Amino acid sequence: MQKIFNNILLPVRLNRHTHKAMEEGIELANRLECNLHILYTFHQSKIAHLFQMFRGINKVAEKKQQLRTLQGEYAAQMKNGLLLSAVFKKGDAIKAVTDYILSHEVDMVYIGNHQRTTQVKSSSFRLAVLKGQPNCTVLVFKSGKVLQKLQKIIIPVTGSFPANSIRVAIYLGLQFNGTIHLVGNSTRELSSFDYLSKAYRFVKDNTVLPVICKTITDNNLVHAVQKYAGSLEGGIIIAGNSSKLSTANENILDNFFTDAKVPVMLVG
Fold first, then answer.
1. For 119-258, where are the E strands, in sequence order?
2. pTM of the complete model beyond 0.90
3. By C-alpha distance, which of 32, 79, 30, 78 is closest to 174?
4. On the CB side of 158, how many CA atoms lie within 13 Å of its CA?
5. Staple 150 to which of 8, 176, 214, 222, CB 3.0 to 4.6 Å?
6. Which of 242, 251, 257, 263 is nearest to 160 (CA)?
7. Residue 220: which of 248, 249, 185, 194 has the closest Cα?
8. Each residue of 182-222: pLDDT tens digit?
9. CA distances from 175 to 109, 218, 236 (A)
């Protein structure tokens, strides 16, 4: 199968939790054989800038040096042939990330435990992705080791055929000997069940991966999928994205990120 991921972007904060983010990012990049790009965005108020100038503090130089040190410390851990890039930007973190994705052909943004390790909060960045800017995969992962979660792949199936989600799920399933779980809501419209059946048949006919089809009676699709994922004791939820999302579907995907107790991957 053609390689899907080549460049992973990891926004970092340069604090005491950054080493954890780096270790997880490098582990993921090595396993998927991707280059890893770490991005730090510097932003401070005018008052803070004037105060530091008065005290002779050069925060820009300090952060640039920290970033270079981080790159030097971890570069040797990348597999042969894979690159570890470190980039310093000034300004808004969201804009820095989206601009970098577009200019460096980034396939995946990895947001680890975002409250501690990354500058880009998932609550802000997911909205940019849901609007189709940029068109790439976002992996939000709050705790634990992500590679241990990639053997149970859960795809919510709603009122459309989840083509991109299935494509990524098959790729990851082949990489990690995974099982694909297709989850639909039997209380929703009949078309959802039709797409669930089509998705099941497509995976069965085109791969050797184990596939499980599950219908759940719960009006809240987000709750139903997360409850099912929890019953598997691990796993990752892969949700599709479209630049023509309805308000209802946008809210569904937004809630996956907000309430997720398992990793969530949003596929562009």
1. 137-140, 152-156, 179-185, 211-216, 236-240
2. no
3. 32
4. 20
5. 176
6. 242
7. 185
8. 988 766 555 667 888 999 999 999 999 999 998 877 777 77
9. 19, 32, 14
